[in-house]
Amino acid sequence: MFRVLKQLSWFFKEQKKRYVIAISLLLVVSIFELTPALLIGRAVDAFQRGALSLSYASTLIVILLAVILISYGLSYIWMRQLFGGAFILERQLRSRFMKHLFQMDPPFYERRKTGDLLARGTNDMKAISMTAGFGILTLIDSIMFMAIILIAMTWLIDWRLTLAAVAPLPIIAITVTILGNMIHTRFTKAQEAFGDLNDRVLESVAGMRVIRAFRSERKDEAQFENKSLDVYNRYIQVARIESFFDPIITVVVGLSYVIGLGYGAFLVFNQQLTLGQIVTFNIYLGMLIWPMFAIGELVNIMQRGSASYERVNETLSVSKSVSLPSNELVASLPVRLKDYSFSYPNSSVNQLQQIDLTVHKGTTIGIVGKTGSGKSTLVKQFLKYYPPGNEGLLFGNHSANDLSQEAIRQLVGYVPQDHVLLSKTVKENILIAANDTSNTHLHQVIHTAAFDQDLAFLPNGLDTLVGENGVSLSGGQKQRISIARALAKNPELLILDDSLSAVDAKTEARIVENIQRDRSNQTTIITSHRMSAVEHADEIIVLENGTIKERGTHETLLKQGGWYAEQVQNQTSQDKEAMS
């Protein structure tokens, strides 16, 4: 049950001063809380003897008020320290969790659902935070505060009466052991179901246009209802186990009261205890109710916290697929692939085979081929998304294995096929990687990406919010914003991975012409299904099943009469038919 405390020992050591102050003051306040019952018992005995004078009563009242005020002040301090520590833990774990997610490679996200990661970063973090705050409180109250009360009952009243009254307590210990393990197992399954529900919601929101286009709203609602019902049922299973605690504790408390009152009355009748003592004892017995309930809360919180910490730690313990070199080497051009082969981590076959390619500074490389020929796989090698296939990938004079991802990506500006925009303004999306860009440069990259023609139609121009993942924009507008974003970085190597597919031929020609002009002395790699996007390239390579089948300039490939020449002829015919 206390495994989570051991798991969080690093944090308690780090915040040792805070928790020592909190626990010490909590114990002091617990001792002070015994005073009112003792004063009431003294007042009852004094009244019974006829010795309750005004001065004596006034003294008792003053002492009582002083104890209340001191307890209030000390309670403020320990609560601030204890629950403040819980918030610090939650903040640290969330920051570590997000930092870890930023460091992870594509293979990590390929094996995990977004909704589950979201659940671990929200619900699980809150459960762990509860452990470091309310969990410590219930731990102290269920063990230390109970011990303080039992010591007071034994020392100040009568050990025989105390022993008889607490005889039913082992029932709670047995119940806690049995139910605690059941809560741990069921809560873990409930959190997993909640992660699946999150993932379902994210997919529905992201794919809302597709759902509406195919009139699948009712089907999606039914799927969501099934997921939601599954989460509900799993949490109900947790609640059913938790619901056993209160009745059992109520029964135990009731038994303690019956034994305490019955045996206490017997001792009073036999003049072994005074009436004031039995009143004080019963008040102490009433004060035991919360520590007994705290045992149930303690088990619940600790088991939830342990299950959540294991889920979060499972994510944090995953190592990067790509190694992190300790050196500070700088990546530079040219980029060379020598007899380079590559396969994805979970694949048994090579997606790229024996690639020989040199990307010189100031050149433009075009990469074309059938769908699935390996175009995107090839350009992703220049970003080190995956562990390099062999030693044949060089940036300048350094192997990709010896360069950090950060060093490589400082060299590269990448426009992927899937254009991800943040829920910010157009301007903020463009300047993600170049916040210090001047307005002149900003408008220049917008012009290069041919997005200037769209600004007049946006309600607030560059300050227009694009919505969730650019939902308010067309596919072509999102592509051009992505191109402008990469250009704003002014990279030495610009990679356009089929990034002109959503624009018309006229806009495509304008973008290509602008890039040729504005990046005449810089390096560009373009992958495309349209041959017109790469015909100006210094070298064009044709991929087929991960190997280079054709290579050369536009004119050279036309003369060869291969696949490239056929595609140029077909696409030219289609363009003429579209214009006629």
From TrEMBL:
Highest taxon above the source species: Bacteria
Residue ranges of domain ABC transporter in the record: 335-570
Protein's cellular compartments: Cell membrane
GO CC terms: plasma membrane
InterPro entries tied to this protein: AAA+_ATPase, ABC1_TM_dom, ABC1_TM_sf, ABC_transporter-like_ATP-bd, ABC_transporter-like_CS, P-loop_NTPase, Type_1_exporter
Mode of membrane association: Multi-pass membrane protein
Domain ABC transmembrane type-1: 20-304
Pfam families: ABC_membrane, ABC_tran
Alphabetized UniProt keyword annotations: ATP-binding, Cell membrane, Membrane, Nucleotide-binding, Transmembrane, Transmembrane helix, Transport
Keyword Zinc-finger: no
Keyword Transmembrane in record: yes
Gene Ontology molecular function terms on file: ABC-type oligopeptide transporter activity; ATP binding; ATP hydrolysis activity
TM region(s), chain numbering: 20-44, 56-79, 134-157, 163-183, 244-269, 281-301
Name assigned to this protein: Multidrug resistance ABC transporter ATP-binding/permease protein
